[in-house]
């Protein structure tokens, strides 16, 4: 399976929090690892593992047809370790869902039954969903701008940057209407992109922190790691799925780096400023900070406005934000 064959979809949503998985277009299924299954059904991994063992022991499913191996890179102390994890397909997910005893699993069963009923009686559930997504995508992107424009945190300078984003990249919003079989398209992107190691990112942030503290613009809490948040984030961005990079382009890595640092809060303080700094640092490391004419891909004020736009966005609009950032970065690629 290639990275291009994957598309993010939601298989279940509760209280506005959707479980996002990747669609394997080659095999028409989705995949979750053991940790994701545990989170989906609100049970310990040991409980999920026991149910899976019984499913295969009783012959309900064939293990070889429903389990796949995936290589992932994890930061363990000073070492980056490559490990193989098992992923379970939709058949296994549903089977576990009908065995687990939890309120979350009950709601999953209710959801699955409703979706099945709609497919059997109406036959157009998926088409209706895609139609609605197509119609709402552009509106969602513009709604994000409107919401950010009303934020008390938006000063005059950032406001000008927000206008700059809309005016300079109006075509981006039009691109968001283009779909391939109902899915948003991504721009032609530059394959690759080298992420900094944790040590490199940490050293760069420490230099920024020292500079800001010397000017009285930050405290000692600025960019201080909260657990292994930054380590895990960088490791996830560098992982592979079925032998292909999960984030195969410079644009994809840059967009997700900015988004995840803002949204996941890996630092005790200064997450938005740290996110913007790491975003620029990544572009610089990969020769993408300047466009073909030697101008910055995005100026300081525009970057501040973009970071605020990400912070103000609803998590449900994540893919809209990611594609917006990617299209902005790819705008001057010939």
Describe the protein:
Pfam families: Fic (PF02661), Virulence_RhuM (PF13310). InterPro entries: Fido, Fido-like_dom_sf, Type_II_TA_Toxin, Virulence_RhuM-like. Residues 179-327 form the Fido domain. This is Cytochrome C. It comes from Thioalkalivibrio versutus. This protein is of the alpha+beta class and 334 residues long. The protein has 3 domains: 9-122, no CATH class; 128-181; 198-330, Fic/DOC protein, Fido domain (Four Helix Bundle (Hemerythrin (Met), subunit A), Up-down Bundle). It has 14 helices and 9 strands. The protein has helices spanning 34-41, 45-57, 63-66, 90-97, 103-121, 125-149, 156-168, 170-175, 198-214, 229-237, 250-264, 271-285, 300-312, 318-330, and strands spanning 6-14, 17-24, 29-33, 67-76, 79-89, 179-180, 183-184, 240-241, 244-245. A 5-stranded antiparallel sheet has the order 1-2-3-5-4. The longest helix is centred in the middle third of the chain and has 25 residues, at 125-149. It is elongated and about 65 Å long. Mean pLDDT is 77; it is low at 1-9 and 167-184.
């Amino acid at each position: 399976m290639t990275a291009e064959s994957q598309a993010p979809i939601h298989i279940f949503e509760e209280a506005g929090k959707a479980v996002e998985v990747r669609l394997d277009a080659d095999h028409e299924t989705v995949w979750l690892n053991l940790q994701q299954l545990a989170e989906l059904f609100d049970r310990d991994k040991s409980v999920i593992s026991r149910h899976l063992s019984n499913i295969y022991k009783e012959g309900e499913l064939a293990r070889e047809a429903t389990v796949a191996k995936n290589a992932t890179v994890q930061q363990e102390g000073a070492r980056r370790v490559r490990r193989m994890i098992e992923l379970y397909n939709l058949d296994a997910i549903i089977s576990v869902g009908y065995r687990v005893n939890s309120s979350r699993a009950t709601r999953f069963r209710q959801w699955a039954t409703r979706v099945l009923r709609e497919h059997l009686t109406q036959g157009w559930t998926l088409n209706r969903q895609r139609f609605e997504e197509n119609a709402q995508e552009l509106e969602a992107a513009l709604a994000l701008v409107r919401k950010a424009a009303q934020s008390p945190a938006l000063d005059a300078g950032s406001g000008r940057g927000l206008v700059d984003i809309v005016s300079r990249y109006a075509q981006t919003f039009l691109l968001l209407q283009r779909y391939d079989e109902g899915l948003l398209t991504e721009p032609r992107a530059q394959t690759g992109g080298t992420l900094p190691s944790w040590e490199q990112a940490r050293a760069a942030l420490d230099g920024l922190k020292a500079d800001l503290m010397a000017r009285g613009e930050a405290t000692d809490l600025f960019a201080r790691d909260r657990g292994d948040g930054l380590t895990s984030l960088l490791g996830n961005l560098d992982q592979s799925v079925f032998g292909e990079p999960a984030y195969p382009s410079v644009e994809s890595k840059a967009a997700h780096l900015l988004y995840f640092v803002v949204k996941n809060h890996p630092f005790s303080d200064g997450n938005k400023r740290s996110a913007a700094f790491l975003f620029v640092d990544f572009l610089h490391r990969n020769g993408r900070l300047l466009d073909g004419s030697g101008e910055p891909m995005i100026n300081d004020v525009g970057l501040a406005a973009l970071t605020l736009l990400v912070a103000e966005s609803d998590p449900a609009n994540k893919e809209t934000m990611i594609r917006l950032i990617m299209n902005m970065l790819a705008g001057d690629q010939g």
